[in-house]
Amino acid sequence: MSEQLRANFEKAGQGHVFAFFDDLSPDDQASLIKQAEAIDLAELRELVDTLVLGNGEHHCGFEDMKPAPFTLLPDNGGDQALWDQAKNIGEEAIRAGRLGAFTPAGGQGTRLGYDGPKGTYKVTPVAEKTLFQVFAEKILAASRRYNVEIPWYIMTSTGNHDATVSFFEENNYFGLNPDNVKHFAQGTMPAVDFEGKILMSGKGQIALSPDGHGGSLRALVRNGHIDDMKKRGVDCIAFFQVDNPLVRCVHPEFVGFHLQADSELSSKACVKAYAGEKVGVFVERNGKTEILEYSDLPDELAEATDKDGNLLYRAGSIAIHIFDRDLIERIGTGADAGVKLPFHRADKKIPTIDDAGNPVEPAEPNGVKFEMFGFDALPFAKNPVVIETARDEEFSPVKNAQGVDSPESSRQHQLRLFAKWANDAGLNVATDENGIPAVEFEVGPLFATSADQFREKLTEQGTVDIQQGTVLN
Q1: Residue 187: which of 367, 38, 376 has the closest Cα?
Q2: Which residue of 194, 270, 317, 412 shows the fewest CB atoms closer than 10 Å?
């Protein structure tokens, strides 16, 4: 081991990281050295000083805050002509190869009682396609529709990277060109105790955790994918989470609004279902658009209404964005000192070892993890855009084993959407009072990814026979 590396850790007050170094096997020693070399001690020192030993995170006041403007859907009072214009602009850009897709997919299905990468979880109501397959087929459908190759960048974690890559290989990338699917592992940050000391999860293992979906921006840079985008001519990156099967991965209108405004970061918003819904809201503060976490919005503001009786702060963030490539590069390289995502503190129960090297399973939070949020890029973005999307058409995440945002709720939402498409196209599918069809059927992304495309398909084929168990592909 480099004596300089050890000296740097000693000087930083973190020399205990190597307390058991001489007891380790050569392979474990090499692993510990690699972990230590990846830690930016100066950055860690700053985080400890501000978030652990200091006064924590500081939020601006609410005196100058107001709801951020957002473009309404035509069905909700928006201008149809604006949406048509945006669609034309977006389709032209997609055909020109300017769009790429990006999915943070480092999570496991633990909360769902599932042992595996969350993207490999089966979510569709009849064919039981996985989340990854749904997204892949949506991207493949758009690639065929616009006669273009759309690259898909998938960020894994150190814990699920190999399993994720193997899953794609075993399924032949779901018809996508493997050269257009780029897997890379997320960055990590060391966890520390409440004194700022790096926690060890084993004698040769630093307690590392993912650096948050905000860390994905610098991971794209560090893994060479910004350079890949430049070679391809991709300058718009559609960002969506791995848990939402309804997302429109390739949405021409969204791309068009983004480009028309010369925006560096555009976002979709759903109108909040109720005042206390646990989603961030789009606000303007100090002349900047930002997403305020629901936990930071005082009750009196969360419940405030406008002159029409609507929630004042009703534009909820659903983690669907389009990033400008150059903004990602500026944030990811850290070259611009004024453009840097903040880290946030999260107190957690972190398995560790004691001074003798014995394992400790804490009953209460014993340390701090650091993570970045992608939406913190908004205040740094030029000309940010927020457009409305319909909850029942694009937002039904699979997060919990039961209840809200569960596999069953998402399944019901998918069935309801498929029935709506069918009925809007004149197929007269019987539904109950909640819009759930009497027969379970599924519309695969290769058949249609929107109501308009569903109608187009019927025009081409004449009609389709929908029965129990029908899967349209």
Answers
A1: 38
A2: 194
Instruction: Bin 357: left if φ > 0, else alpha if -120 < ψ < 50, else beta.
Output: left
Residue range 106-123, pLDDT digits in tens:
988 988 999 999 999 999
Domains of the chain in start order, with CATH, are 1-37 (no CATH), 50-396 (3.90.550.10), 406-473 (no CATH)
Q: Is the pLDDT of residue 335 over 80?
A: no
Angle at 82 between CA 78 and CA 86, to 5 degrees: 125
Kindly report the pTM of this predicted structure.
Answer: 0.91
Span 268-279, average pLDDT: 93
143/140 Cα distance (integer angstroms): 5
Q: What is the pLDDT of residue 62?
A: 84
Please give the backbone phi and psi of residue 256, each rounded to the nearest 5 degrees, phi first: -65, -45
User: DSSP string spanning 391-417?
Assistant: HHHH-----SSSSTTSHHHHHHHHHHH
3-state secondary structure of 442: strand
Alpha helices in 205-306 (DSSP H): 215-222, 225-232, 252-260, 299-302
**Buried b / exposed e across 334-369, counting CB within 10 Å, b at 16+?**
eeeeebebebbeeeeebbbbeeeeeeeeeeeebbbb
Phi–psi pair at 285, nearest 5 degrees:
-145, 130
Q: Which residues partner with 116 through β-bridges?
A: none
User: For the segment 143-171, what is each residue's pLDDT rounded down to a tens digit?
Assistant: 999 999 999 999 999 889 999 999 999 99
CA-CA distance, 361 to 352, in Å (whole number)?
7
Structure tokens at 113: 């009682």
